[in-house]
Fold this protein.
Amino acid sequence: MGRVSQAQARANRRRVVERASQLFREQGTGVSVAELMNAAGLTHGGFYKQFASKEALIDEAVTHAFGELAEHHATTLEEHKGHRAEAQQSLIDGYLSVRHRDNPAAGCPVAALATDMARDGGDLGAHRTYTEGVQDFTQWLATDDEDGIARLCTMLGALLLARATKDSPMSEQVLSAAHTALSPAPQPRA
C-alpha cells in the first residue's frame, strides 16, 4: 500500500480528532486507541504517524469540542439577531432537553468530560483547555446581574443527573425543574 498524500493525511487526522471528540464525550477518555482508529475507519498502526501520544489526541479532541461549543454559541446569538437574553434562553432550552440528554457525543463537553478532567488532574493540556472552555461558557451565560457560574452549575448538574437517571421518570423531572429555575417568570397580562 502506498503512502497517503499530505492532503489525505490532514483529512485523516481531522477525521480522527472529530471522531475522538465525539467518543470522548460519549464514553470518556478511556476509549482505547484501537477503538478510536476503528471508529474513524483507519488502522491502529496509523495512529502514531498522526499523534505523538493518546494524550496529544485528547488535547486536540477537547480543543475541537470546545470549538464546536463556541461555534454553537455564536450561531445561537446570530439566530436571535444579537439579542443575548433570547439566545441564552434558547441555549438553556436545548441544553435541558431530552435530546441533549440522550446525545452526549454531540453535546456539551463541559458535562461530558467533567469526570475525566477531574480524574486526570492538571497533567494534560486538555485540562487547561477544559478550564478555559468552562470560563468562556460561564461568560456567555452571564447577565447584568450574575456571572453565569450558577446558571452553568444548574444546567450541568441537571444534565448529569438526568443522564444518570435516564431510565426513570426522575430524569425528565430533573430537566424540567432546572429549566423552570433558569427560565424567566411569566409576566402577568395587563
